[in-house]
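Re: that chain you flagged

S.,

Sorry for the slow reply, it's been a week of failed gels. I finally had a moment to sit down with the sequence you sent. For the record, here it is as I used it:
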Amino acid sequence: MSHEQALQKLRFLLVNVAHESSDALFRVAARIRDAKPNVIGKYAPLFTLPNVDTLTAEDFQSFLLFKNNQYWDNLQRQGGWMTGDMPRLREGIKLLIDEHLPLRTRLNRLRPTTGPPMSKGLGRAAITAILQVVYPDKYGVWNNTAEKAMRELGLWPETAREAGFGERYEAMNRALIQTAEELGIDLWTLDMLWWRVSPHMPKGAGEEEGASPVPVETVLDETIAPSEGSSAVFGLERHLHEFLVDNWGATELGEDWDLYEEDGEIVGSRYDTGEVGEIDLLAKHKRENRWLVVELKRNQTSDATVGQVLRYMGWVRKKLVTDGSEVEGLVICREIDDKLRYALDGQPNIRCMTYQVSFSLIPAPAL
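Prediction finished late last night. Pasting the structure tokens below so you have them in one place:
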């Protein structure tokens, strides 16, 4: 896609953002766009040098919630880590907003290429969201949605693999500013458009559209799950990916594996390779030099599933592994049939797990 074609697509999306749109995502986008004055008015004062010293965990957690920031729907996932050491978090925020220092210096101190971060859990999405709220005309947001959309449109600036977080964000931010200027909009509105380039309903936003999430109780098991052909079970399966991401630490996989992170941001959910497709889940072992490619088998054939896993494993081995780490594959499915067994035969680095989905209605006690 050429640069002008990318701008044309963004202009088309922009003119369709309206509260009265028949498309729920455009209605959500309109609410996000119009929330800017209230969100900045409420939270920018929290992140000023005089006030950071008195910033409480409750106030910071409030900022991370979509219902309050009206914008970013995954910041709260690492909120517990960030607020676990409030003195370090306050120190990190003071460094971040100090415009007396070059931007790349601040960011590289917060997220050094080697060594631990200044504040655990304070990743690029939260860092750049704070910058956007405090300096809305200078800094845009770098999160998974923005990066995926920019790559899809050919607007993503490539940087050296060894470049630090600060250098990479500076390159991205220049691209954001240029794109916003060419469209005649501000950085807040541009960030809103990324949701529509890669269609995605922010969590919590759908509740007003009558699309609240369905609670799911899922159990991962090494054994074969009983087959249930009901359409209700099939409907619940659509939430498997989201459930695994939100509850990763409580699953069997979470005992040994962490979802892959870059710059303190979990990017191992629907990891976009840019070349061979989108990996459902990508994880690294907590103690050993091992990578795990997870494929959720839905409606595709067994041959296609195993082929995808092998392709993703090869890509990870070539593009991400730098120290000779092992790359393993995992297929998660409702049941294992003979076709899948044969497809996995002779693939010692790929294993399979099954899951069970249960849903029940319990009569309420009489009044």
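What I noticed first: The radius of gyration is 22 Å.

Talk soon,
D.
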